[in-house]
Specification:
The protein is of the alpha/beta class. The chain is 42% helix and 23% strand. The chain contains nine helices and seven strands.
């Protein structure tokens, strides 16, 4: 099959269910203009809409995000929340934080989004130590080697019914490589195996093709 059909179909779905206005469509360019050092991967518009659907399904009021980048997925998530809802998003790169804040302000969502700057593992431990956070939904799209540890910390701040989504867990099929030396592949292999054995959640992985080529999301609900 011609792989272009997947991209064309993604455009078709986006036009029906996830049209981007100027703020969202301009985020990738804002990262380029801001000299972001991070890859411009992120998620597609339809994947953003999927996050919104999942947030609505679990009646999310509080969302935790790992990996803000330019604020693209952050904005999709925040727009799914009711009045008084909050997204706490974690970003390591201070330059990306500045870019994301500008994009979030353009979207009129500054009051709904709190960005915490630093290493995700450190911020997660801080959030847990604060002992006041229970998240209804978690979206993980950060560095892959510590995904297993990120998930465990996120799970400790969840409730029954919390949905936890982890992006980029298929990696163009490279998860099948038994002798991979790629730290990202090794990280998601370890995470996928640990998730499959975790009795605290009910989980699966969805393969995805389209504008973001071939990858997948792990989706878990806390039992």
């Amino acid at each position: 099959m011609d792989n272009s059909i997947f991209e064309k179909t993604d455009h078709y779905i986006n036009s029906l269910f996830a049209p981007e206005e100027e703020v969202l469509s301009g985020i990738e360019q804002s990262l380029l203009d801001g000299n972001s050092k991070m890859p411009l991967g992120g998620i597609s518009a339809n994947q953003g809409k999927l996050l919104q659907v999942l947030a609505k399904m679990c009646n999310a009021k509080t969302v935790l995000e790992l990996g803000t980048l330019g604020g693209y997925s952050t904005i999709w998530l925040a727009r799914a929340l009711p009045a008084g809802g909050k997204v706490i998003t974690i970003e390591y790169d201070e330059n990306n934080v500045a870019i994301a804040k500008a994009n979030i302000a353009k979207a009129g969502l500054t009051d709904k989004i709190e960005i915490r700057t630093g290493k995700a593992i450190d911020i997660l431990q801080q959030l847990k130590a604060e002992n006041k956070h229970t998240f209804d939904m978690v979206f993980m799209d950060a560095d892959k080697p510590p995904y297993t540890e990120y998930f465990a910390l996120a799970l400790s701040m969840s409730r029954p019914g919390t949905i936890i989504v982890a992006d980029n867990v298929v990696r163009n099929g490279k998860v099948l490589e038994e002798n991979s030396s790629d730290p990202a592949v090794l990280g998601v292999q370890r995470f996928n195996k640990a998730l499959s054995k975790n009795k605290a959640v009910t989980a699966t992985i969805l393969q995805m093709v389209g504008l973001k080529e071939y990858d997948g999301m792990a989706i878990a609900v806390v039992n």
